[in-house]
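In the laboratory, one determines a bound structure by crystallizing the protein with its ligand and collecting diffraction data. In a computational setting the workflow is compressed into a single prediction: the sequence and the ligand go in, and a structural description comes out. We illustrate the idea with zinc ion.
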Amino acid sequence: MSDGMTYIHDIGQFTLVCANCGATAAGTSKRFRCACGTPFDLSLDTLAQDATVEALRARFAARLSALSGPERSGVWRYRELALPLADEHIVSRQEGNTPLYAVGAAEREAWRSIGVYAGVEALYLKHEGHNPTGSFKDRGMTVGMSIAKALGARAVACASTGNTSASLAAYAAQAGIPALVFLPAGKVATGKLAQSVAYGARQIAVAGDFDDAMRQVESVAERLGIYLLNSINPYRLAGQRSIGYELLHQLQWQAPDWVALPAGNLGNTAAIGAALVRAAEVGLIARVPRLAAVQAARANPFYQSYADQWRGFAPVHASTRASAINIGAPVSYARARAMIEATRGVVTEVTDDEIFATKARIDRAGIGCEPASAASVAGVRRLVREGVIAPGETVVAILTGHVLKDPEQATASEPEAGAEVSDLLRAIAETLQASSPRA
Ligand SMILES: [Zn+2]
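The predicted complex, in structure-token form:
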């Protein structure tokens, strides 16, 4: 390559490592669990790094103006740190590149209502709902699907609460690989279901919840030799790390004090945490931001373990209306815990009422998000009230999915039905009169 960086052509050059027992497997392996039961991690941090911090920053900045090639993507822009995969393998559609909205109480626009509500002067929303299929999943999927294609997978599959299946279906169509999605019957939001149908994935309804669907897809994939693209696949998490790199880049490499995120299957907690730690290690930022992982109180095994000083970990029966984090047996528990510890992070929980009250604020500001996304801001609000986050600290909250993902859960408001047009116009005029600023 012209920039002197060495990119990987042979997938076998990557190594999967078990954090529990130290066993390794080749990067071409289709099994993502070590014999000891622990999901494998992708060994990335040991890959040779040939660039100085200044050179890396200059390279990332230059790629912002690329008009062709995979580096237009907000994932592959950071490929040295996300995954140094060679161009010929990459299946990409300019994913990432998501906005970072300034909504802190110190801002001057109406969006500051969100910062006032959360109690934070400098609050940013990293809106991952702006990805091609409307959720952060596309960042992991571009990497996972690239590997699937490079390995010649005959089919790809995932279990999903909805966002992963939408992303898998879209990227599989682009790669020309048949897709199977295992969905908990009757528990997937309409917008997400519509996507995987439209993008042509074969859908398999599983009786039970996400955790049941996950168990089924793992056993079927192994038996039929189908490439599994759940977040147990370590390449997916490598792509998700780019959320961390991109938000730090957008803040001009000034580390925020906190990064808050919804916590369900815990892949993002692990991936974003790893990115923050890595960015500090290579000198892109001066200090590691603290992670705040936020669970729904009715799907909170990670919070329970944290509150018990990590003494134990027990799956729960999950029952939150925030369907994207309605997960009782998170796959990435151990990696996520390691990242909470490495970032001096915290885990908290919020009720469904808090999630939906917060979503209403985000929706009314004209930004909007799916219910699970609002957990991050609701968690920030709670942590400010508990004195864990100081009002003057800088906080980035991750919004994971688009408001249209879950249209039934959009904040309710009564339609003005039955009125005559003239009555309606008078009512609107009165409303405008009442809300107009006094000169
Ligand atoms: Zn092991």
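The first strand starts at residue 15 and ends at 17. Keep in mind that any predicted model is a hypothesis to be tested, not a measurement.
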